[in-house]
Structure formats: structure tokens, C-alpha cells
Amino acid sequence: IIKSFTYLAGIKSKDPAFAGDGLPVAPEGGGESDLSDLNVPRGLTGLFVFYFCLWLLRPFAAGTALARARRLALDYPTYRVEADKNVNFGKAGFRHLFFGQSMGGSLFLRLFFTINPGVFIFFGGALHALGLAAVLIVCLLAALAYYRALTSRYVSRESYEKYVAKMRRRNARLVQKGYMKEKAPGEFEYTPAWYSSSEYRSSSSSSSSSSSSSSSSGGGSSGGGGSSSSW
To answer: I want to staple 126 with a disulfide (CB 3.0 to 4.6 A). Which of 38, 94, 216, 224 is the partner?
Structure first.
């Protein structure tokens, strides 16, 4: 692939080395393979960071969220860990955390991402230090945002109450728009208008962390893309 693009660039720039039969002139000594320029440790560094985010970030953040939720329950009697869908998957075991459909994508999709863009990340980092820097920055920023979204609400009672208040405001806004209706005091369900709205389509295409929410201090549960909610 590298030689192909080098050849096309040489023809485009009318490089004398590509004159005649169109093949590049070999340097003295017969030349060396372009692969000799690869910085393999640098490429593997970028690949490791990408694979960590792809395979290990979810269970790591889930374990942290569950541990924080248990500490929160000790200081916040009305909060119940067992009613919180956001952390209940932390009890589901190793296989579900890594491969479960609802836990951040199907196994097939993760395997696909392991190869592509995995191969491009490796060669990009191995060929250019700037490529490695770009991979590290993007992966670390995405990982930090995901980790905070999953765990920050359990840091303290105050942070969890702020999260609950935010979700209540969201429910009230959706009710006002006709996207939700109150089927019982404090319990809501989505209307058909929600599933045909642009907000639902945008939420469905967002990260899996927005696809489920935790229970409120009143003991309900909410699904960002589900069928019912109570706060």
C-alpha cells in the first residue's frame, strides 16, 4: 500500500525517478523494504491504548461505578444498588461485561474494530510519531469522557442528587413535548411520538452509556432508549 501511494505521488509530481517504465529507481545497494522504517514499539503502544479502550474500559469503569454505588448506599439509605440498572451489570460476570450486546456493542462489532481501524492505528503510529500522538489524544479523551459519564454520579450523595434532578427535568421536558406520559404517580413511559422523533434517533446513535440510566432515590429506573421510566 505504501509503495502504491509512493508510485502515484511520484507520477503526479513528475519525479525523474519514476521516468521511463514508471518504476522507481532502486537506490544503491539494492534498497531496503519500506517496512524497515516502521517503529514497531511505537505502533504497538498506540494499538495497546486503542485495545484497552475497546475491550477493557467498560469492565474497568463498571467495576468502579459498582464500588462507588455501594459506598453511596451506606451514606444514602434511600438509594438502592439493586434497583440501579446502571450498575447492576457489574454483578453479571466477566463474560457479560466483555461480550454482552447491551454492554457496549456486539462481539462481532468489537472484533471488526479490533482489525479495522486497529491495523491502521498500528501502521499510523509506527510510521509517524504524530500519528501515535493523535491516537493517544483521541483515545484518552474518549476514555475519560466515558469513564466520567459512568462513574461521576456516584462520587457523593450530592452528585447523585444532582444527577437525579437532571433526569427529572429531562422527564418533565419530554412530557411537555408529548414524548412521555405519566402512567402512574412518578412512573413514565415513552409515547410513539418519541420513537419517531429526532431526539430518539440521535440518542440511539450515541454511546451506550446514554442508553440506560440508574434508579432515583425514590427507587425507580429509567431507560434512555427503553420503554419506561420512574423518578
So the answer is: 38
- The distance of Cα 153 from the centroid of its chain, to the nearest Å, equals 18
The tens digit of pLDDT for each residue in 135-168 reads 999 999 999 999 999 899 999 999 999 998 998 8
- Write out the H or E segment, with its range, that includes residue 183: strand 180-184
CA proximity to 136, closest of 43, 29, 37, 31: 43
**pTM tops 0.85, yes or no:** no
Q: Which residues have a Cβ under 8 Å from the Cβ of 92 and sit 6 or more positions away?
A: 100
Give the model confidence (pLDDT) of 75-97 as tens digits: 888 888 888 877 876 455 555 55
The span from the CA of 37 to the CA of 24, in Å, is 18
Nearest to 211 by CA among 111, 74, 119, 101: 101
pLDDT at 189 over 90: no
The DSSP symbol for 56 reads I
Collapsing DSSP to helix, strand or coil, 224 comes out as coil
Distance CA 53, CA 111 (A): 13
Burial class (CB in 10 A: 0-12, 13-18, 19+), 33: exposed
| pLDDT band, residue 169 (cuts 50/70/90) | very high
